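Hi all, long-time lurker, first post. I run a small reading group and we've been trying to get comfortable going from sequence to structure in the token notation. Rather than ask abstract questions, I figured I'd post a concrete chain and ask someone more experienced to write out its structure so we can walk through it together at our next meeting. Sequence below, copied exactly:
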Amino acid sequence: MGVAGSGCGNSDEPEADGKQTATATDPSPPRDVPAPDRETPPPRKKEKDVSAGLPKVPKAELTPATGSFTAKQKKYLVDRVPEGYEPAAALEAGQAICQRIARTAKVDRKAAVSALESGEISGAKDAVLHLCPKHKPLLQAAGLLD
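-- Answer (accepted) --
Happy to help. Here is the structure in token form:
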């Protein structure tokens, strides 16, 4: 069975108009286009605090649906929980920040410090100071502590 008329000739044979087709042996991009593996990603924007400007739950009213908060947890929650929101959800968000820092530092300490420096881990300073103080050395390395 032949492949006549398929339009896919050998790249070394001239085309009907006398031009030679480009070969697939030279995959290099033009010089003015950076190679994809060398591009730096755009800087991440700091996350906005969606609760900014909203009235906050007073300290005396910061209680979970069941149980109670520790003194450190309650201190973290002060001025952080908008009225109508569950304080436990704000606490969970802070704990998630601590977990993210811990996971990143476990794999690559420099990456954790870099993420803290750049603000990629939003709210990290307060979370570390109140909920996971064992990560203070990372904040210091990132220049976030006085």
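A couple of things your group might point at:
Residues 13-26, 33-48 have pLDDT under 50 and may be disordered.
Helices lie at 71-77, 87-107, 109-118, 124-130, 136-141.
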